[in-house]
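ok so dumb question maybe but i'm new to this and my supervisor (M.) told me to 'just get the structure for RNA 3'-terminal phosphate cyclase' and walked off. so i did the thing. is this what she meant?? sequence i used:
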Amino acid sequence: MTAVRELDGSEAGGQFVRTALTLSVLENEPVRIERIRDNRPNPGLAHQHLAVLETMVELCDAEVSGAELDSKTVAFDPALESTANATGWRGQDRGRLSGGSYTVDIGTAGSMTLLFDTLLPLASVLDSQLSVTVTGGTDVKWSPPLDYFRHVKLPLLRRFGLTAACDVDRRGFYPNGGGRATLHLAPSSLESIDLVERGSPAEIRLHSVESASLSDRDVAHRQAEGALERLSLEDTGIELTERRESTVSSPSPGSAIVLRLDHGTGIAGWSALGERGTPAERVGEDAADAANRFLEATGEPASPVDRHLADQLLVYLALEGGQLRVPTVTDHVATSCDLLEAFGAQLEVAHDEAGETALVTVESTVDA
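this is what came out, is it supposed to look like this??
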């Protein structure tokens, strides 16, 4: 009988729970997570965390306890059928996950992109295509907007072997949510990550979206104008190769903007959400300010990815090995490294003495 891995979530947030569930499935190892979000104002599982847990249970036909709102303790056992030709980073047999089509309703404006993030690494243990259609929030606070997920994260991960796509039926802004999108995953042979140096910035792509209820105020256009004015591309030599301004249906008024930078070795991205009382131009400027801070960090060594991607890539780094230079060791990066090490990954974090960046290295995983 496989021993249960005990985890303490008291000092971490929902990301800790999501990543722990992903690792549990990838390593085919039961987990017990206690004191979930204990240091948060509303501890325990919220709607979006419960939706992730219930989705993972359904995908794996897993055994679970504590799957209820506000629960602070969850036990999860994927109990997948093992396969002898795929091993985890500690050499034990990984499980095999069947594909299929599933539907998930978060029930609030909870983030569907965070749920999608939880599922993406599972492509490495799939035996057939998986499609998951989710109803919830597409562009909400404290999570990547849908266009960041579709146009920044997925294109970068495809470079390292992930086969995935995302179709969007309807946007869902806060507070009503009601968006609908489908993630398609195919069995994927992931490759080691090599993102150590930043290449020369080459091009910027811009995606600005508004709900139909805001179209008479030209919000999407004004966001784009604010961003481009603040970026001053004519002074940088970076080419604007794509500019999309979209009006979409949504149960709630809302807007978002995403900037994507392609450079010699990777992709980075930044985003901002519209808020009541904030001029649309200012929303665009906020995204551009984040991009400018990235571009201004031209000293060596400079990170090839933005701070959010840096954290999200650590699972893939642990799975297949490689090197990743992160812009800074945020709390999320530190927590993720600790969690990955708790599952047996051997990460080395070397801080750059001349700046904030750090090089995270994982030796190649054990061959089957």
